[in-house]
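Homework help board

Subject: predicted structure for assignment chain

Our instructor gave us this sequence and asked us to write out the predicted structure in token form, then describe one feature. I got the tokens but I'm not sure how to describe them. Can anyone check?
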Amino acid sequence: VGPATATQKPSGPETLAEHLMAPLSLALGPGKSVLVTQNFAGTLDRVDDDGHLSNIYTNPGWDVGGVETRGTTTFFVESVGASQGNPDALAGYLKSINGRGEVSTIVDLATYERKNNPDGFHDYGFGSDVTDQCLAQITAPFPPAQYSGAVDSHPYATAVQGNTVFVADAGMNAILKVNAATGETSTLAVLPPRPAA
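My token output:
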């Protein structure tokens, strides 16, 4: 039996920032800071360990999310027009901010969706065992009772490994693989549909 040692109880969670609008993604930033997106406000902010909040990027009216860092580079996605049924209104990008604060577009994700529509071969909605009478009761504002993968893009998360950025897109129902240096993009996986009934 060894000597008795004092154990310190772990401290509880510490609130760094309050009153944020939809802080849906975060990443460790430089020093002891945390980067956080306020998706519905269209901002990417830095929260220092003393709670000081400073803005890094703003695009009002857009959804800004999916923040991730590697070295001195911050990656994030932004989009607008998802789920509106108008493919021409879609806009979405994977962007980066370097250590000098310069913002660069890596790839236009909405254009990739319009050209490729990765889930276009999938059928969604209610299964074939649902009667036509039942299907006829499903009307606007709900989506169609049965439909094939529509042209839609809503990127919401990123993960970075080496020079590759993986982007999860809820509109595409897909995970994309993007070369951070060239913007070359491919579909890594398409998520299978889950019938509503």
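Reply (TA_rk): Your tokens look well-formed. For the description, you could write something like this. The chain is about 5% helix and 40% strand. That's the kind of observation they're looking for.
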